[in-house]
């Protein structure tokens, strides 16, 4: 029987600088689902990404288990090929003078600079991903000339060029203005037609759109709620998550929150 989970964790604990950042984590994520992980700053979201990417390792006990793509030990080269992660660090590494076609192409080679010996096959892959994401109009623009939203979508396209199984988006709308924020949200929603599945990590509830099959709330390194968004997104859970009295509103498919009291 083919294992349906790409990530499996049982009783996982992780420490950074002497602090426990992941506490008794029990979590399975299926190949078939788009998942959004939401929590305040310092909740353990980034640490969980590091666990998935094998940048930090859990404490090993007889009761714990961690499998990624059904393997307890996985080759990092295979892992980097099957999982692409997009974060602000990548955006800051891109040569600002690169044209977008070259920014996306650099993702095939895991580099951040101009690729000289590019083949017609490579160029065709770039053109296809730009067409799928409706950003062909950006092809010959320099990275430095793009809006913040366009830059974010360009590095997402760069991550998708190697057709990973899983795309991890780490705070994809952080520090964006309203226009750029909703531009990025709409573009990410369009990715649901691709075979690649999304794990989005955010503190912003605006990111929770209809493409996500599952919402996981994380606080203090622990899961406090997990399930379908219409079940999980409610005032009680969000009050617990953020520690303030709020109400939740859904309008045109997007969730927003209003603060009720100090």
Automatic annotation (TrEMBL):
Q: Which InterPro entries match?
A: AAA+_ATPase (IPR003593), ABC_transporter-like_ATP-bd (IPR003439), Metal_Ion_Import_ABC (IPR050153), P-loop_NTPase (IPR027417)
| Taxonomy, superkingdom | Bacteria
- Xref: Gene3D superfamilies: P-loop containing nucleotide triphosphate hydrolases
Pfam families this protein is in? ABC_tran
Location of the ABC transporter domain: 7-245
Keyword flag Transport: yes
Give the SUPFAM superfamilies listed for this entry.
P-loop containing nucleoside triphosphate hydrolases (SSF52540)
Keywords, sorted A to Z: ATP-binding, Nucleotide-binding, Transport
- Regions crossing the membrane: none
Q: Which SMART domains did the record assign?
A: AAA
Q: Which GO terms describe its molecular function?
A: ATP binding; ATP hydrolysis activity
Keyword Acyltransferase present in the record's keywords: the answer is: no
Alphabetized PANTHER family for the sequence: METAL TRANSPORT SYSTEM ATP-BINDING PROTEIN TM_0124-RELATED
Q: What is this protein called?
A: ABC transporter ATP-binding protein
Q: Which organism is it from?
A: Prochlorococcus marinus CUG1433
Q: What is the lineage of its organism?
A: Bacteria, Bacillati, Cyanobacteriota, Cyanophyceae, Synechococcales
